Here is the input.
Amino acid sequence: MTHWHRKGFAHAGVLHLPPAIALLTICLAHAASWAQGKGRVERVTFFSQALGINKSVNVYLPPGYGAEGEYYPVVYLFRGHEREWVNRDEDASRRGRNIQDVADELYAKGLIGKMILVMPGLSSDDNTVPGLGVNFVQVAAAGGKSGIGSGRFEDFVVDDVIPYIDAHCRTLPSRTQRGVDGFSLGGYTAMLFITKHPELFCSAGAYDGTMMWLDLDDPRAAGPLDDGTWLGSSLFDPAFGRPRNVPVMLSYNPCNLVRDATPGRVALLSTCQFLIHSAGSERAGNLLRSQHMVDVLSSRGLENAFADIRLAANAEHNWWFADEHVRLTLPLHWQKFQNPTCTMPLRLLLPEPGSRVAGATTVIWSPGLLLSRAFTFLSFSGDEGQHWFPLATLTSPDTSFVWNTAEVADGTRYRLRVLLVADSLAGVASTQGRFTVDNPGNGRPDLVVLRPQEGEVLSGTQLLTWFADDAEGDSLAFSADYSSDDGEHWKPLFGWQQGVRSYLWQTPLFENSPRYRLLLRCSDGMVTVADTSSRFVVDNPRTALGQAVVRHVSGNGSGSVVVHVASPAEVRDATYRLTFREKPTRYDVWDAGSGTQLVADATELDGATEGPLFDGMRLVVADFARPEVNEDSTGWVIGGCTLFYRVYLPTVDLGSEVLAAVPWPADYAITLRSEVVDTSSGLWGAQPLPMRFTVQELGSGAAAEVVFNDQDANATISAGDELFLVARDEEGNPVLTWTITFSGMPGAVPPVPGDIFVLKTKKPFTSRDVFEFNPLRSGVAAADAMSGSGAPAVRVYPNPFNQTMTLTWTTPTVDAASVQVFDLRGRLVRTMRVAAQATGQRAVLWDGSDDGGWQLPSGVYIVRVQVGRTAQTHKVVLMR
Here is the structure.
């Protein structure tokens, strides 16, 4: 699902003007009047097919963005985390300035026109593992860091980010209107993309880029392959493996890419602009590496725009000078964009859309101009333009090429594209429809899921559709499975059916979930292929009885259980018992009276996906994967102490071994005393110390073991002290768990005797957790759930919604109405009341951005509308 966190982006499918016309529109509008005001930065989160995870991008939109008829060039800015270019406090040197201020200032001075700046996230979420714009060799070396996904960061930029920005922003989707720039490793990334993908960009800058040496051979050290930065640093283990995969590194080395470029590739690079700067010091070696890159470019006749690559004599490797570099390069990027080279009236004539080709096939194009010198780059796609592959590079002004189609697989979704570059002119053309390649032998059928689409919300009876065709015209059969947990578990939807192209799906019979996927299979009798849909949502109206209906009979699990009524007529007057099993955690549901098991081994524990159906009900269970600190309940609960605290899981190097702390499902209370009442533990070689406080495990009431790091040796808790909590496993062995570090500003109030600090955790369910509920003996909520016949017909729109949502209904009564909003854990987050009034249509506007002064997060919410004695519920999706 795509989340656009703020308004301002064009909708997907916007009609782009031809590049020459769009560029002329920009120039005329800009020359007539400089728009006043400032640009803005919007954060975009979307699902990356390449990485397999949600990933974020920051996008700077220029002043007056979105004006009718205006389309804009794009500069992609690289570093690591998406926040770095916009974070005013990324380092102390920045002095509160960021890239938004730089661009606004340049625009106000008339040094640049309106352009979009895109800052992709090319690192782990904690910014410790750089993505570099490469496809990782050894993803496991990232240590499971979030934000890495599959590690295919090159594919993420090329196949996900650029198409997404072109589809959702008012861009000029042309290489002549795209540039790249970067700082440090981001400078390397910019040079990588311009040298590896010059078909995508025409201008590239880099500030103090940590480039690779040609052939990885550092001239400052003896022997080959001696660059300790790229070959020695563990920072690059995920990208290039350990030991290093040198061939892969060379394929991602901008210096090698330039040196080994074919004449045609050099010709394309000659249409690009290079803007390489470096810091003034050789301290980190980046000055030498940047000059090395410039020298390699020069060896192929490609020049850097700056005669002296030193940004300034005092330039340092920090964000102030990175912003200064961009302040100088953005006007040069803009000037490059103002010289359109993609205005050639190029047409691709053969093969024609809908045609069938085989063997040697002639491809014909017409540039509409008489050319004496030209470079032509042909590429093909077997999936109607989603992915392109090089076919041929021609260094003469030919207008035809014989393509041996026997070298590609048979298929029905082929398209061709031609890029022609001649001096300052360029043209791009592609077939306007698909054609078929059918050579002797049996080929694979083509299959694409058309609906559901990514993020689509389905309810009621829905038509699932797909495209399927076979180059030989064979009859096709289809089957489908579905998953409600993002592909972790699959269940059959329908078996093999001959010749169908759609399926009528009764979604109310299935569990609600925001994590659905459809797996479709197709067979021509000899070959079976499959296609999986993007994630979508199934959301049918349910009555949520909430946590008040459910009793937590035993156990300490901190999750929640909500009962959804899917079929009121099937609900029985019975007591139900919910129990859990561990490793991995799953749950069972029992009829407590008869002992009959109704649900076995349910794995839906994400708090959003409904579990299996039983007696007209489904459960929504929210569990914690592992113990977490409960921030809302942790802190000083008695006394006036103002010391700060931090609770974390440390890794302690003892020399002989390394202790890795384990999250422990327990709560603790630290009580300050006036005298020494305990002694800390001497485990792992620590020195036992006197303590004028107790550490007690809540629940059991037992004294907890603790290793005390008493910085000021006063036997009590002060700023700088650390408490390492110790638990015991089932065999009695000590286990290092949570650590609490205390700190404070000068003048902070220390704790005094009688003060209490509490650490509370959110605990996963275990086999000791048992819940019980009776849906027909649960008060008003259950009564309302069973009284659906008189409920008003409520319409909710839009759904999903970004900020505001409207609920309307028509009622024949004059009763007052109440609208309540719950999260999926059954917590009430908003109440809106409608006074009694004349019969007819009622309406309520819910603003999801204004809820008691705090903004609700993206997610699924339950809206309950009660009119008189009747009620109705709806699930709604809030997307930032």
Remarks:
- The two ends are 11 Å apart (CA to CA).
- Confidence is low (pLDDT under 50) at residues 1-36, 779-790.
